[in-house]
């Protein structure tokens, strides 16, 4: 079976699922099979994710990296990898602000708006 066929079927099923969320919407003849295929696919993805997260949770008892991964995902504002970059950018910004002479910023703005 070709990948594009599967994608088309999933698209048709998703479209039918969205359509059915409208009030007083009746099932469209011929689209039931695509809807069922789409819902089965979504359920399989969710079950796979639950399994994968269970493996990571179990591994976190013995491996600190698995625990760190979970912490990064659950609390990205505290443990995410972007946090280190943000801290570094804030330091650089503070250094730039400290190096700016108080009257310089205003005069450059006036020069830009006068053009």
Care to describe what's here?
With 115 residues, the protein is mainly alpha-helical. It has a domain at 1-63. It is built from six helices and no strands. α1 (3-20) crosses α2 (32-59). The chain is elongated and about 70 Å long. The model is unreliable at 106-112 (pLDDT under 50).
Could you tell me the number of beta strands?
A: 0
Percentage of residues in DSSP E strands: under 5%
**Uncertain stretches of 5 or more adjacent residues:** 106-112
Mean pLDDT: 84
In one word, what is the shape? elongated
Work out the oligomeric state of the chains in this entry. single chain
Gyration radius over CA: 26 Å
Helix % is over 70%
Main sheet characteristics: none
Supply the number of helical segments: 6
Spell out the key features of this protein.
mainly alpha; 6 helices; 0% strand
Write the topology of this structure:
Elements: H1 3-20, H2 32-59, H3 64-74, H4 76-79, H5 81-99, H6 104-114
Helix pairs in contact: 1-2
Summarize the structure.
This protein has 6 helices and no strands. With 115 residues, the chain is mainly alpha-helical. Helix 1 crosses helix 2.
